[in-house]
Amino acid sequence: MLTEKQLAQYAEVLLWGLGTARKKPFKKNDCILLQYEAPAVRLAETLYGRILDLGMHPVQRMGLTFGMEKSLYKRSNKRQLTFLAPGDRELYANLNGRIFLRAPESLTHLKEIDPAKIGTVLVSRKPLRDILDKREEKGLYSWTLCTFPTNELASQAKARPEEYARQIVRACYLDRKDPVGEWKNVHRQVSGIKRWLNSLEVSYFHVESDHVDLKVTPGEKRAWKGISGHNIPSFEVFLSPDWHGTEGVYYANLPSFRSGNYVEKIRITFRKGSVVKMEAGKGEDFARKQLSMDKGASRVGEFSLTDRRFSRIDRFMADTLFDENFGGQNGNCHIALGASYTDTYDGNPAAMTGALKKRLGFNESALHWDLVNTEDKTVTACLRSGKKVVIYEKGVFKY
Q1: Nearest 10 degrees: CA dihedral of 191, 24, 368, 109?
Q2: What is the CATH number of the domain that holds 47?
Q3: Mind listing the pLDDT tens digit for each residue in 92-131?
Q4: Residue finishing a domain among 149, 178, 207
Q5: What's the number of domains the chain is made of?
Q6: 276 and 342 share a domain?
Q7: 17 half-sphere exposure, CB direction, 13 A CA radius
Q8: CA-CA distance, 393 to 329, in Å (whole number)?
């Protein structure tokens, strides 16, 4: 669905993202894990060559086909479900970068699988994620990911394949003469917004829309992050709040495809930081079991806002990477249930101990589930001084 020129441009944008996301520069002989799903093989080949050109070592891994994934959940015993292959820990302990090319050929192939099994697999993989998190905190590793258009994505988004691919091209600036230059410009502009947000001494944020009335408490030692290179595309500005202070009602008006399941119209009520009530128009049983995956799965790990002036995404894409960066008329906000991002700690993340993380309210979980609201909304910062400042309205930061 993409031309050779667009594939080359996509590869360069991803390499820009990988480099921007890392605290220390890459060097020759670094090890880069290149993971991809089958339809994205041409983009993977392009990236493989470019990584070699840069004097680094690409390690290629193709993901499970949806048939393999279905077999894993249907035919495995618990020991097989939680099996970590020999060498995985050693590989992850030596990675300097990871690029993941998402290209799903099915989004609902696991709808008949017990969600508890899916949760078991995610929990069993958390030790590998912990290794990468520690390496990233030390500046030794970074990651980025993107989506490659497939017929399944287009079908679920109710778009023609060429229309879907065109939205990806626009969102990633692949229709511009210098896509990397465009991303550098967005990065520069959003840096000003982050500095402004980080200068505010906020007690809590109040998010209001037709179906949302939510209080989010940033907590101590927090820093807004965003346009970090981790996701392509990404226009969001986010932080990981102190989960204890979440109160009120949140509603996701965009559907969510997750772990081979479909969920829509999720309405969540928080009390004292945890979910006390959850309803969904479809997929409620799956959603409930996701929230019971572990103790932290029913708490907030991320709060995010997207400014519509930067995002060129203007339609539902059936893909969280794009939907959480929706621009349109009203921009969007999203929360993530589950794991927090310790890089939003306003300090040295490498010095973050388990005790400090717990005290500051950074949430721990094997889950990280982004839930998106694109309604017209107002976000008010209630400052420690007692003053109230509208920071976001009509899809735009009031900077």
Answers
A1: 110
A2: 3.40.1830.10
A3: 999 999 999 999 999 998 989 998 899 899 999 999 999 9
A4: 178
A5: 2
A6: yes
A7: 26
A8: 11
